[in-house]
Amino acid sequence: MAPELPEDVTAGQLDAEVRAELNTLPRSLADIVARHLVVAGALLDEDPERAYEHAIYARRRASRVGAVREASGVAAYSVGKWQEALADLRAARRLNGRNTYLALMADCERGLGRPERALEIAHGPESRELDVAERVELRIVASGARRDMGDPEAALVELQGPELKERRARPWVARLFYAYADVLLELGREEEAREYFSRASAVDRDGETDADERLAELEGLEITDIGEDVVWSDAEDPEPADETRGDETPDGEGSPGTEAVEDEQRRDDETPDGSGSAAARTEDVQDAVEDAGNSEEGSGASEDGRPREETD
Predict the structure, then answer these.
(1) What whole-number distance in Å separates Cα of residue 281 and Cα of residue 291?
(2) In a domain, 38, yes or no
(3) pLDDT tens digits along 126-159
(4) Distance between CA atoms of 168 and 273, rounded to whole angstroms?
(5) Which of 37, 252, 268, 282 is most buried as measured by Cβ atoms within 10 A of its Cβ?
């Protein structure tokens, strides 16, 4: 049975290149498949299980269309169905010849407990054909595979490169800095980890990572979210004073919370303006489904390079 389609969803909402791939189908079938792909892309972040249902239905109706197999592979990945995702992404690669989703494929191998195969994908000749964002995502997965194998030193090496000097606010930059900081912390290099968590936080305009929280933990602070504002305070409340001096207020100079906020503001001020726009999840795994015919950034691997838990 087909999952229900909202009445306001049309085939025209699908990316033009993907619609072009669907032209090999009868017109009525192409319209149905396109609408299910639109819904799958729209639901991928908020309700991945329902997104998966729509993508799999599209696959059943058009399994020989590369863009459809890409969409179903990404949807299967989003719900932790590693083997199914890997099969779909391999099929998509055979059908359209694109290597866009190598990072997802490598992460599926990790999810299946095969980090060695993940490294084979990461270091294969096809990886040299990727753009910088896709290469970085693949390196993050490779780093995670090294950690799976108990080798954090090698994991750190996987992440090293000129991209660590990038200062523009791009989605892959925040994830690279975060992954690098996480490995540094595992190696006991806390000061360097703090620096890269701070850098990740500074360029993470869309909240792709929890770098703020990780940085706060290292500095012994807590983050309180009050609407659009974030307040940093000491993790341990100070002992209440017996009395307050007349020339001081509780929030005056010397207040731990105030100093923490000022420190954070200084870090923000020192961060150069980013010229690139950030997008959720490497232009989002959601965009990967909607724009499955494009070769934009394509990995949804977790920030620290660790795969999600597989679901039944």
Answers:
(1) 14
(2) yes
(3) 999 999 999 999 999 999 999 999 999 999 999 9
(4) 7
(5) 37
